[in-house]
Amino acid sequence: MTRRITRRLLLGAALAAPPLILGATGNLPSWKRIKQSYTATGERLSHAVYSRIGRSALAREYPPEEMSPEFRTNGATTGNTPAWLEARESGFANWTLQVDGLVHAPRRFSLADLQVLPLRSQITRHDCVEGWSAIGGWTGVPLSHVLEAVQLQADARYLVFWCSDVMRGFQYYESIDLIDAFHPQTILAYAMNRVPLPVGHGAPLRLRAERQLGYKQAKFVERIEAVASLSSVGFGNGGFWEDIAGYEWYAGI
Ligand SMILES: Nc1nc2c(c(=O)[nH]1)N[C@H]1C(S)=C(S)[C@@H](COP(=O)(O)O)O[C@H]1N2
Ligand SMILES: [Mo]
């Protein structure tokens, strides 16, 4: 006869388990020490847990004192398309971001249009796959506000960020799904460390999708296209480095 597993039985097992496990190691630390070590690593622990419980978890944000004294640039350090070069001449006064594809109300946004929308500032750590990190501050408009303005169509599944730099003959692009698109820390940043976004870091507008690695943080964004599938974009892998070097499309951290 099988015993019915009651909730009380499960609770009893859960309470009994830790001493049993520790006992089995033959090296039983005192509960006090265990408690202390948990308190000491509490912040790290909760972050480690939160970052694994779901896509909506927030990336860690830092106090201003922890900002890196230097935040290096990487990849393209300038746009190089004729339109971008011309826009830079006017200090990006006549630059626009185009938002189109599977949206009901495609439109262009000037920097001023974006800057009157609600803004968000965040100090986060950028992690590049090449093995360096830097903590920097970003200010911009949450992507969700831009998407509300253009109204995604029912079959939109991904957003493609087209950039104003062409490398090795290919336009840089990246893409994210709608979970990342509506994540509260996904912003179109026009300022870095409280000054207008420098050219080297993607002026006048870049993506910050803080739950993703560095190469997803598209710089020099000139167009956002909503698509149903990534298979017909570029070589079909969802991004410049994904196409050229086999980087993972989902680069979640
Ligand atoms: N348009 C564009 N975006 C890009 C790149 C690039 O070459 N072109 N490089 C990516 C990589 S690999 C990294 S690590 C970051 C570097 O951002 P930073 O120059 O602000 O440090 O931008 C990403 N976004
Ligand atoms: Mo990177």
List the defining traits of the structure above:
alpha+beta, five-stranded antiparallel β-sheet, Sulfite Oxidase, Chain A, domain 2, 8 helices, five-stranded mixed β-sheet, 253 residues, binds molybdenum atom
Compose a concise summary of this entry.
The protein has helices at residues 7-25, 31-40, 42-53, 82-89, 111-115, 143-150, 178-181, 240-245, and strands spanning 96-101, 107-110, 120-128, 132-142, 158-167, 170-177, 186-192, 195-196, 206-209, 221-227. With 253 residues, it is of the alpha+beta class.
Summarize the structure in words.
By secondary structure, the chain is α+β, with helices and mostly antiparallel strands. It has a single domain (7-245), classed as Alpha-Beta Complex (Sulfite Oxidase, Chain A, domain 2), CATH 3.90.420. The chain has eight helices and ten strands. It has helices spanning 7-25, 31-40, 42-53, 82-89, 111-115, 143-150, 178-181, 240-245; strands at residues 96-101, 107-110, 120-128, 132-142, 158-167, 170-177, 186-192, 195-196, 206-209, 221-227. The strands form two sheets. It has a five-stranded mixed β-sheet with strand order 2-1-10-5-6. Strands 3, 4, 7, 8 and 9 form a five-stranded antiparallel β-sheet that branches. Residues 74, 128-130, 214-215 line the site of molybdenum atom. Molybdenum atom binds next to loops.
